[in-house]
Structure formats: structure tokens, C-alpha cells
Amino acid sequence: MDIASWMETFSSFYLIICSSFPHRWRDLTSYKLLKLRTYQFSGFCWLDYERAFREHAAAEKVTDWSKMHVQLFNYHTAGAQVCTRPASSSVVSSQAEVSGNASSKVICYSWNIGPCIAVNPQCEFHHACSRCWGNHCATSIVLQSSHARSLDPEEPKRSKHR
User: Fold this and answer.
1) Between residues 123 and 28, the one the model is more confident about
2) pTM of the full predicted structure?
3) What CA–CA distance (Å, rounded) separates 12 from 149?
4) Cα–Cα 20 to 30 A to 7, which of 40, 41, 98, 132?
5) What percent of the chain has pLDDT over 90?
6) DSSP 8-class letter at 122
């Protein structure tokens, strides 16, 4: 299933639920935005998380879908490839960047590979590098090291002999 098909299906579900439970519009809208943000950086991991979350929500009778289930999210996105994309590709370009919680002992995974996908303006996790706890995201280390290699004049000679 692609994101467009999911959005169409979820919109039908949303309309049915909100016609009987009008108070659910806020948490279901937050959930939809979370899926779009997850889709931006994690390839098909968003769909694995989506399925796992729905199963969890049904089993536990969860009625507020606005908050991410962190353990499920981390489990399903742990192997996601780091994607680099232009900054203009955000879902809501006018939205200010989400700030992290500096006192948290848990590092924000989504912030390390792209924009933070927290629904609220204050993420509950620490926005620090997942490799060294530095004041930068982990992708900046990957990008810096590959940029440094591309500036190395000996690199083409070494790569021929590998």
C-alpha cells in the first residue's frame, strides 16, 4: 500500500469514526500527520508501524491515537535507511521546528535522521546525536564523513585498488 492509498482509506475510516464520536477528530488528525511525517523519512517502515499500532490499539482498547507508541515505533523503524531530502519537503512547511526535551535520557530517533515527527511543539525526547550525544543529528556525521572523502584527492586511486 502506498501513502496515497492509505490516506484515502484512513480518511474514510476517519469520517465514519468522527460521525459517531466527534471528539475523536483531534487525535485522529494528529495520527494522520504522524503517519505522513513517518513516511517522509522511513520508507515503508511507516506502514509496518501503522499495522502494529492498530493491532495494539485494538487489543488494548486505545482510544487516543495522538501519541506515538515509542516502543513499537522504534522497533519498526530501527532498520530504516537514512534518507536525505530537501528541507522544502516537509508536510507542513509553515510549522516551526519541534524542540527537544534536554532533560530526557532518551534520544529522539526521528530527529537524528530527519525532522522530528512529534505531534506537539515540544518533543518528549532529547534532540542529540544518537552516536555521540553531540548537539547535532547523526546524519550530519554521515554527511560530513562522505563529504570529507569526496574532497580527498587520493580517494579515486585507492578505490581502484579495492
Assistant:
1) 28
2) 0.48
3) 49
4) 98
5) 15
6) B
Domain ranges of the chain: 3-160
Torsion angle in degrees (nearest 10) through CA of 140, 145, 146, 147:
80
Q: Are 130 and 109 in contact (CB under 8 A)?
A: yes
Chain centroid to Cα 34, Å, comes to 8
What's 24's DSSP letter?
Answer: G
Q: Residue 61 gets which letter from DSSP?
A: T
**What's the pLDDT band for 154 if we cut at 50, 70, 90?**
low
- Is the model more confident about 37 or about 26? 26
Neighbouring CB atoms inside 10 A of 49's CB total 22
Q: Is 154 exposed, middle or buried (0-12, 13-18, 19+ CB in 10 A)?
A: exposed
